[in-house]
Amino acid sequence: MLKVPDAAFGNVAVPFYKNINMHKVSGNGNSLGTFGNMMIQMLPEDLAFTVFIPSEEAFERNLRLHMNDSLVGEKINDTYAVISPMLGFSAVPRILDSAMVPAVEELSFDSLSGFTLFISKDVVGVLVVNSVNSDGVDIRRRKLLVHVMDGVIMDPEFEQSVQPDFDGLSQGGF
Asked: What are the tens digits of pLDDT across the range 90-118?
């Protein structure tokens, strides 16, 4: 069930650091990277969503997806098999601008897959979703709002399925 917080923007005293956002990025589509743009293209154009997309570095580091080889030949099907669930875990069917996230509390929303996203800001105003910091926020694409994250948002079962298979060890740090 989608949990929508009450929006109160009246004459409320706001801490100074709430308005500091050094990670704000313009609406440049290139800032999403190839895999981020692939995720965006899977959403309908006429509905409003907020999507928390991994940065290109996070796709490489956490999911082992590389532009040079993940989009070649039959590997593209494997790439979509990873990216599709990522979209379900990281998209909410509403617009959630970074300015709408209060500095002093945590919001929770259900993603398209039903996975709960816990959204807050750290002490310097950086958007944080399920312990993953943002790299860029408030990127507009059509009716979509995109936040680029320095990590991957996913449920524990899917995280285990994309862990490295060598020696039974995991990298962690998603």
From this structure: 999 999 999 999 988 999 999 999 999 99
* CB neighbours of residue 78 within 10 Å: 11
Q: CA 63 to CA 51: how far, in whole Å? A: 18
> Binning pLDDT at 50, 70 and 90, where does residue 165 land?
low
Tell me if 78 sits within 8 A of 70, measured CB to CB. Answer: yes
Q: Give the Cβ contact number of residue 68 at 10 Å.
A: 6
Inter-CA distances, 52 with 86, 89, 102, 129, Å: 9, 9, 17, 8
Distance CA 46, CA 40 (A): 12
Q: 89: closest CA among 64, 142, 52?
A: 52
pTM of the model: 0.73
Helix (H, G, I), strand (E, B) or coil at 24: strand
Q: How far apart are CA 7 and CA 1, in angstroms?
A: 18
- Which is it for strands 107-110 and 91-92: parallel, antiparallel or unpaired? unpaired
The tens digit of pLDDT for each residue in 5-63 reads 444 433 333 333 333 333 444 444 457 888 888 889 999 988 999 999 999 998 888 88
CA distance 150 to 166: 24
